Amino acid sequence: MFQANEALIRSVVEEVLSQMKSSPRAASARGHQGRLGVFTCVDEAVAAAREAFERLSERSLEDRKRIIDHIRRISIDQSVELGTMEMEETKIGRLAHKIEKLKTLGERTPGVEFLRSEVYSGDHGLAVIEHAPFGVIGTITPVTHSLPTITGNAVSMIAAGNSLVVNPHPSGKRVATEGVRRFNEAIFRDVGIDNLISIIAEPTLESADAIFRHRGVRIICVTGGPAVARAAMNSGKRAIVAGPGNPPVVVDETADLARAARSIITGAAYDNNLLCIGEKEVFVVDAVFDKMLTAMDKAGAVRLNRREIESLTRAAIVKVGEGERQHDAPSKDFLGQNAAVLARAVGKNIPQEVELLFGETDESNPFVPVEQMMPFLPFVRCRDVEEAIAKAKHFEHGFGHTSIIHSTNVRNMTRMGRIMDTTLFVKNGPCMAALGLGGEGYLSYSIATPTGEGVTTPLTFTRERRCSMIDELRIIGKERAAPCN
Ligand code: NAD
Predict the structure, then answer these.
(1) Residue 137: HSE in the Cβ half-sphere, 13 Å Cα cutoff
(2) What pLDDT, in 10s, does the model give residues 414-461?
(3) How high is the pLDDT of residue 1?
(4) Is 173 within 8 Å of 204 (Cβ atoms)?
(5) β-bridge partners, 140
C-alpha cells in the first residue's frame, strides 16, 4: 500500500517536470496547479504557496471553512490508513494512538470560528481590530507526530487565511508528503486552489535553512527539539517556536493515589511517551512514596528493580555530541518503543499490552534530566512537597513547557503553579487533559513555549490590522437636533 502511494507521488513530480520540459510556456501559464503541493525545490514550493495564498485571499470565509473541512474529513476518515503509514515509516509509538491523533486533530483543531475582531467604541468614533493573514508560513515538523502536526498546523494556518510550506522530518517525510498530497487533491477538486500546503518531499537541514531565509516566507513555525528551536530563533524572521519539554510530575501526601497512577500511565504511555507534554519524571513525597508505587502496580504498570533500571539506563541512554556539547540522549533503538521492548533489554518478558515501566531512581539517574520519549518513568523520593517542587523546577530545565501535580491541597497547587511558570500546568489529570482531551480547552500539536504563544490557534498565525472611523458610527447616545435654517 505504501509503495503504491510513494509511486503516485513520484509520478506527480515526474509528470509536472516532463510537462515543463516539453512545454515550458504551457506549464508557466498553469502556474503550479496540479502539483498537489509536492515539491523538491524550496523556491518553487514558496512560489506555489504564494500563488495559493493570493487565490485564497479572493475567497470567502465560508470557502476557508470548506477547505478546512476537507483536511478534517481526510484526517478522520483515513486515520487508519494514514496512521498505519506513519507507524510503518517512523517505527516509533503505538498504532492505536497514531490513528487516534489524526482523528482527534481532524475533529478538534480550532478553525475559522476561532477568528474574532475587537472593537473600541467611544467619543471619537469606532476602531475595529481585525486579524489578517501573514501570507506564506514556513513550517518545520517533528518525527514524533509527522502528519498530525501538519494537519493541526494546516487547519489553523489556513483558517487564518495563510498558506504554508512544510519541511517535514526526514524520517516521516513519506507519510507527510502523502497526507499533504491527499489534502491538496481534495481542496483543488472542490475549490480549485492547489498548493495551499506545499511540502518538500526530500527535506534536509539545507532545505529547512532555505525556508528560514526565503524572502517569500513571512513567518516561521517550528515544532521540535532544542536544535531547531535555536535555529528558528536565530533565523532573523519572526518565529513561533513549539520547543522541547521534560514535564515533571509532583505527587503530595494529599493526592488520590489511584487516580494519580491512572493519570500518569495514561499520559506517559500515550504513543509510547512521544508527546512533548507527556509525563517524563515523577517526584513523590516520602510519606506516600511506597503507596504510590503500589498504586502504579495496581494500575497495570510494571515495576523494574534497581538492577534492571541500571541495565536499562546503560542500554537506552547514550552520549551524543562532542566536547563541551556532549550530553545524554535517548537511544534511537529504544525511543518510542513498546514497554515490552525496553523490558526485554533487561531480561524481562512482559506482555505487549503493558503500557508503562517505572521504578525508583535517584535524581542522578539520566532518565530524570533527559527527555526520554520512551515508556519508562523514574520515580524520585522527596522529603516533602517543597523538595518535590524544587526538583521539578530544576529538571524542567526552564523550558517553560508543561508540569503536573496530583494533590488536593490548593496551597501546594498554587505554589507549584507559580514556581514552575510553565505554559501548561495540569492538576489531577493526565497531561493531555490540558489540551481539552479529558479537560477543558482546545487542541493543537504545536505548543509555542519559548516564544510564548502557547497552544497555537488560528489567531496565532495572524497580524493585527486596525480600521478607525473618526467621530462617527458610535450609535450610542442622543443625536443632537439638526441645526434650523
Ligand atoms: P527534532 O528537533 O529532531 O526535529 C524536529 C524538526 O526540526 C525536524 O523536521 C528536523 O529535521 C528539524 N531540524 C532539526 N535540527 C534542525 C536545524 N538545526 N535546522 C533546521 N531544522 C532542524 O525533533 P523530533 O525528534 O522530530 O521531535 C521531538 C522533539 O520535538 C521533542 O523535543 C519534543 O518535545 C518536541 N516537540 C514539541 C512540541 C511542542 O508543541 N512544543 C510538539 C511536538 C514535539
Answers:
(1) 32
(2) 999 999 999 999 999 999 999 999 999 999 999 999 999 999 999 999
(3) 43
(4) no
(5) 167, 222
Ligand 1 pocket, 225 CB below 6 A?
yes
Residue 10 has a pLDDT of 58
Enter the pTM of the model.
Answer: 0.93
* Closest to 397 in 3D by CA, of 235, 261, 229, 262: 229
Q: Where are the alpha helices (DSSP H) in 131-193?
A: 146-159, 173-191
Type and span of the H or E element at 233? helix 226-233
pLDDT in tens, 169-217: 999 999 999 999 999 999 999 999 999 999 999 999 999 999 999 999 9
Query: Quick check: CB of 371 below 6 Å from ligand 1?
Result: yes
Q: How far is ligand 1, taken at its centre, from the CA of residue 144, in Å?
A: 8
Q: In this structure, which residue's CA is closest to atom 2 in ligand 1?
A: 225
d(CA 198, CA 476) in angstroms, rounded, equals 48
- The dihedral over CA atoms of 408, 410, 413, 419, expressed in degrees to the nearest 10, equals -160
Q: How far, in Å, CA of 168 to CA of 175, rounded?
A: 10
Any idea how long the chain is? Answer: 485
Q: Ligand 1: distance of its center to the CA of 93 in Å?
A: 16
Q: Scan for cell 526565503, then name that residue.
A: 214
CA of 244 from ligand 1 middle (Å) equals 8
Q: Is the CB of 447 under 6 A from ligand 1?
A: yes
